[in-house]
Amino acid sequence: MRSIALPSGTLAVKVENGFAVAQDGARSFRLYALAKQAPEQRTIVLDPRQLGVFSFSVEDFSISPDGVLYVAAYVNFGLGDSRYALLRYAFLEPGAEPRVRHLPDVRCRFLGAGVHGVWCLDPEPREMRAQPPTLTWIAFLGPLRRYTLLREPGLLSLGPPRVVLAGDDVAETWLPSMRVFLEAHPDDGVRAQAPIPVDPASRALTSFAVAPGGRVQALAPLREHGVETLTTPYALVELNVQRTAWRRLLPGRRFARGSLLAGWSATELWLWNRATHSLETIAGVEP
Asked: What is the set of domains in the chain, with CATH numbers?
């Protein structure tokens, strides 16, 4: 097992495209290049003055397959102009600096970055116009496509939503408030959906990851005798190819309640162990 110590105040962690990214402050990130046995670390601090804006708050972040850090942010441009925007930082390019990319009329609350564009998820109805949840594909060169998610929302206790990009810029979307997993393609929208594998009475956090071959894993509470407590452990489960049912992986393994899957890097599945403030690999799972 490999392990990386994270700052105790880490707000969010993702493993994508060979990097682990930990948001350790309001506008700061720690990047770990995972290709080496001892991951190389660098710190990125995004300064509003460097970006030419008054201020911004980070909503979500994602590293694209071509090694660009994208940050979905709510930006104050000044003179009463505040809106959602993308911050783009090609950190692997010598001399590169962060840039602001304006968004169309999209609330980019949760972000997944691809080579040809980004997916933005707005899981909550808009307050003023009572619009339903939406998943939006924003191509860098091409049209914007917005797909409405019609499923009724449920409880909000199962953790944050997330969008992970698979091959062909397909969005694998985790929607805990709706208790559903969705798969969407930029050209024709939602292609498949499956219920998140939790009991209706569950109050646990959930999370998921997408393997390089397209397999989907998740962490869900391991209920014993129909009872779930604050110390109920998690089990690792996997969605079948038809996207209709889940099966348990590693039946002899339990995970601490509150742990979250961070994502895949090559042949390694990484877990954010929040109790120990660490990022750890899970052995025994095939990509």
From this structure: 46-196 (2.120.10.30)
